[in-house]
Amino acid sequence: MRAPCTTADFARNDQRAHIAIPGNFIYRCLCEKASVEVDACAVPLAAGDTLLFCSDGLWEMVHDQQIAAILTSLPPDPSQTAHALMQAALAGGGADNMSVIVVF
User: Can you give the residue range of the structural domain that contains 13?
Assistant: First the structure.
């Protein structure tokens, strides 16, 4: 993630905030340095917003429209929703490992 983040780093689309993060930024943390530089940015939230934190193992296998449909069609149960998203990624080819966290 670039630091510092600004409002230009994300845009509202389909009631979701997309934050652009260049690939492989986690490798910056996997080195011999004693401390890690932390990037942070603020994203305005409203009551009823849903947060999805996921790796490319999900978003490269499942189209945004399908992700949105899954997030909005199931009861607000983070575990059930995350499981449905992972199943969609596996059905889409599941070529990569994935991490999925859903917050209602």
Answer: 1-45
Global pTM value: 0.68
d(CA 27, CA 21): 13
Domain match, 63 and 104 both = yes
Residue 25 CA: distances (Å) to CA of 30, 37, 92: 10, 11, 25
The tokens describing 31, both together, are: 């080195």
pLDDT of 59 above 70 = yes
- The end-to-end CA distance of the chain, in Å, is 24
Q: Both 54 and 102 in a single domain?
A: yes
CA 41 to CA 35: how far, in whole Å? Answer: 20
Nearest 5°: phi and psi at 90?
-65, -40
For tokens 């510092």, name the residue: 4
Residue-level pLDDT at 46: 85
Pair 17, 41 in one domain: yes
